[in-house]
Amino acid sequence: MRVEGLSVPYTISADNTLSLVLLLCSLLSIMIVMRSRNTLPLRIRALFIHTTNLSNYRHTKSDERVELFLTAQSIMALSVMGYSAELHYFGASLAQNHYLIMAAYAGIFLAFILLKRLLYMITIPIYCNIQQWRAWLHLFHFSTALQGLWFLPVALVHVYLGLSATATLFLAIAGITITLFIRIYNAWSIFFKKKKLYVPFFLYLCTLEAVPLALLAGTLTCVAQTLKGT
Questions:
Q1: Residuewise pLDDT in 10s, the chain (230 residues)
Q2: φ and ψ at 190, to 5 degrees?
Q3: Which helix (H) or strand (E) element contains residue 13?
Q4: How far is CA 27 from CA 43, 64, 168, in A?
Q5: Which runs of E-coded beta strand occur in the chain?
Q6: How many angstroms separate the CA atoms of 75 and 69, rounded?
Q7: Distant-in-sequence, close-in-space partners of 149: CB < 8 Å, separation ≥ 6
Q8: Global pTM?
Q9: What totals of helices (H) and strands (E) does the chain contain, helices first?
């Protein structure tokens, strides 16, 4: 029964605008998977079996648009899960700024991806030729885009089917971890394995993987503490 004068607590599942966006993203993702059902397994295979033949890493403008869409979808799904975690741990007092908070989370994840790409552009070409760099860049963009096909279903199950916050956090961390190890494996195989560059590989792990991830974790913690105090 509705009581006059009392506002209804905000829930993501009851947000019609956000639900429409998530539905559209789901339909587009299904269409992308169906259209790419012949090439997608081959591109996933390329993440684990590498070749120096540059033609194997060429992709069209359509592929680039798909990767951009899936990356944006990944950022949106992570921002939804981040805000849902805030609601779970800090209560519904954050409802009045829900879009602003989701946008802040999206900005953090976007900045993280752009920072990593910038660091890669500055550092990695030192260890490789242009052919290897293009192959690596292709694999980086593709592995980042694949996260969108992982995080969106997790967000949907969490929001609409009641998956617990702990399980959602575990699945989100699992997706990030799998992508991280794939990226490390790609870097080792393409840049360092043939020349046995162990020390540069260790520096790569510290500066290009561990440090950005630590910055992301620290930023999210600061945001959570700030919201907790509001």
A1: 444 544 566 677 788 888 899 999 999 999 988 888 877 887 788 787 765 554 555 667 777 888 899 999 999 999 998 888 777 776 655 545 788 888 889 999 999 999 888 888 888 777 777 777 877 888 888 888 899 899 999 999 998 888 888 888 899 989 989 998 988 888 888 888 777 778 888 888 888 888 888 988 888 888 877 766 65
A2: -85, -40
A3: none
A4: 22, 19, 22
A5: none
A6: 10
A7: 29, 33, 70
A8: 0.83
A9: 8, 0
